[in-house]
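Before any further analysis, we paired sequence with structure tokens, yielding the entry below:
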Amino acid sequence: MRVLEAADKNFPAGLKKITPKVKKLYSKGNFTKNLFIKSLTVVGARKMTQYGQRVIDNLLPPLVDSGITIISGFMYGVDQAAHKKALELGGKTIAVLGWGIDWSVGASDIKLYREIEEKGLILSEFENDLKPQLWMFPRRNRIMAGLSRAVLVIEAAQNSGSLITAGFALKFRKKLLAVPGPVTSAVSQGTNGLIKSGKAVMITSASDILNVMNWHESVKKKKSQPVNDSKDIIIKLLADQSLTVDEIALSVGQPVDKVSVKLSLLQLKGWVEEKEGKYYSKMDLT
């Protein structure tokens, strides 16, 4: 564990200007000042929907490829999904905790915690094994907003804690970005409200984020797309909506058994996933 005080030359510059002041940080993992140069805080609903997961699956790969550090708060839902995706892509991620640096996380979180500690960075304003308390999370949120160049909100209800982080972003004059969601979804009311009020820039692709932040997109080659056959038609069908195998078969005019085989192949390639009987595209066709 490493302790950084505000007077330390390596103390994150973004935290020196925020209030309430951050006097000390405790860290585990790989601390370098370069982590914060191109960084994005990603926050959102703890009750993340499949739509939220698809947004993360689509937005993060180009950002990670472009060397952007993903910062979040290690809570279940959008936070952990963002950490996991960044690690899966071989990128950099920072977890900012709302409890003492040495407090033991639950059994279901320990694998992710250790992976972030090994490959990324864990930060807390709180020492020892101080257990999480409600008042700690707004203090954590201000750190997440202060560390990054911008805050991206993916799914947030009207009274979501993510809106506290959004408020800090505005207070600290950071870019506030939000992904719109279905008007029928309770966990999109907060994000849609941020966009409607003009407080947040609407984001519908990774390119939007890169352009707003004036960050250069990676020149890495994108994943090869499916060949232009019936599997390609299935991918395009699923790009805008989730469908059952019967609905897909009806749309492409093929027997269910043949479509099932093609879906299995697409799943093996990582281009499609199935949840609760419906299929989703994981490909970025933009």
